[in-house]
Write a structure and sequence with these properties.
The complex is a heterodimer of chains A (265) and B (152). Chain A has 265 residues and is of the alpha+beta class. Helices cover 35% and strands 23% of the residues of chain A. Chain A has two domains: 140 residues, Uridine Diphospho-n-acetylenolpyruvylglucosamine Reductase, domain 3 (2-Layer Sandwich), CATH 3.30.465.10; 101 residues, CO dehydrogenase flavoprotein, C-terminal domain (Enolase-like, domain 1, 2-Layer Sandwich). Chain B has a five-stranded mixed β-sheet, with helices on both faces. Chain B has two domains: 74 residues, Roll (Ubiquitin-like (UB roll)), CATH 3.10.20; 67 residues, Orthogonal Bundle (DNA polymerase, domain 1). The chains are: A alpha+beta (265), B alpha+beta (152).
């Protein structure tokens, strides 16, 4: 196995230009499981841990190599709440936000926040940069628009984030758990509300009919909050798998939606 | 060839392909204290400190750790003695089958290095990545709570 360990972004892009099919290694929390269980045998690896540019966090730009441990203590409330639920301290010290996007798991804990605020993903290759909105980047379960020779550089958040942000997730226990359902809700003082849910569809799901309905309610009544939860539960498209059932996930989506909305009022 | 600084000593290893740091420590460097249980980052039995951060060594690619400083459970205690975390666990009989113990010791020692008087919540949070399948958590928490109480 060949490994290159560049110390700057230019070095990464050169390595990828030389070998576009090289496997990218950041925190290793997804890749190494596949390697150890024999599902993947990388012949060529570009290791990203030493690249300072990827670990930068400047205002609304979060470098792909920023770890969940940093995000957990960072200034973005909704994302920090999500980071707090990623794995364990050991996992949060290694795993990165770029890795969450690269893996593009339906259960990726950071993804509902990025979907709720309509974040963009910044990609680079030797040929230049491009920026894709989250729903152009995540194309399916564990699928994304990253091309051979390309690297996730970071996440661009909107300059003005919604005033209130809340994230929650349902799992079999509190710590070290992959979500059964998760949700992030953001709301402006004027009422404009967006909600994205994870683990209840092939990619994060924005419940747009529910958003439209509740955004018109400046001071939602109990009946409006109830209706919001019902609409969200109707808009998700969960499956039954080894972690939970379609019907439980749909129920959980509605409960999460109501609870997060109440926390944002 | 990969160069590793483990418990203050320099080692070179020739990992096979993308092999994990856990495998290298146990099978090539003669350091079997880090335990191999789940090999997917869920159990914490293989916890080590890598360049100052607590991580699961099963999720670290050895070739990517070139030049890194690693502390394993073998590196915590002074020669012939025990680390205060180990003393505390011993005093409370906080070991059942013992397989998870090295991981708990490394995680707890790292916590006390960064926070000498952790609250009960700090302890639970810091140990949330370590699983004891004997469910011996009560004794472990009692032992470490007592140790936290001794801090000046």
């Amino acid at each position: 196995m060949d490994i290159t360990r560049p110390t700057d972004l230019a070095g990464v892009l050169d390595a990828l230009d030389h070998d576009p099919s090289a496997t990218l290694l950041a925190g290793g929390t997804d890749l190494m499981v596949e390697v150890t269980y024999g599902w993947r045998r990388p012949e060529s690896v570009v290791a990203l841990r030493r690249v300072a540019e990827l670990a930068t966090w400047e205002g609304a730009f979060i470098g792909a190599g920023v770890t969940w441990a940093r995000i957990e203590h960072g200034p973005v409330r909704g994302l920090a709440q999500a980071a707090r639920t990623v794995g364990s301290p050991q996992i949060r010290n290694a795993g990165t936000i770029g890795g969450n996007l690269g893996t593009a798991s339906p259960a990726g804990d950071g993804l509902p926040f990025l979907a709720a605020v309509d974040a963009s993903v910044v990609l680079a290759s030797k040929g230049g940069r491009r920026t894709l909105r989250w729903d152009q980047f995540i194309t399916g379960p564990k699928q994304n628009a990253l091309q051979p020779g390309e690297l996730i550089v970071g996440v661009q958040l909107p300059e003005h984030l919604p005033h209130r942000q809340e994230f929650a997730k349902v799992g079999a226990r509190n710590a070290m758990v992959i979500s059964i359902a998760s949700a992030c809700l953001v709301r402006d003082p004027g009422g404009a509300t967006r909600i994205a849910l994870g683990s209840v569809g092939p990619i994060p799901i924005r419940a747009r009919r529910a958003e439209e309905m509740i955004s018109a309610e400046r001071h939602p009544s109990a009946a409006a909050i109830e209706e919001f939860g019902r609409l969200v539960a109707g808009e998700v498209s969960p499956i039954t798998d080894h972690r939970s059932t379609e019907s439980y996930r749909r129920h959980a989506a509605g409960v999460l939606a109501r609870r997060l909305l109440e926390r944002c009022l | 060839m990969t160069r590793l600084i483990v418990n203050g000593a320099e080692y070179t290893a020739e990992p096979s392909g993308a092999e994990s740091l856990l495998t290298t420590l146990r099978d090539r460097l003669g350091l079997p204290g880090s335990k191999n249980a789940c090999e997917q980052g869920e159990c914490g039995s293989c916890s080590v400190v890598l360049d100052g951060d607590l991580v699961c060594s099963c999720l670290v690619m050895t070739a990517d750790a070139d030049g890194s400083e690693i502390t394993t459970v073998e590196g915590l205690a002074p020669a012939g003695g025990l680390h205060p975390v180990q003393e505390a666990l011993l005093a409370e009989h906080a070991v059942q089958c013992g397989y998870c113990t090295p991981g708990f010791v490394v995680a707890a020692a790292h916590l006390f290095d960064t926070n000498p008087s952790p609250s009960p919540d700090d302890l639970k949070e810091a140990l949330s990545g370590n699983i004891c399948r004997c469910t011996g958590y009560g004794a472990i928490l009692r032992a470490l709570t007592a140790l936290a109480g001794e801090a000046p």
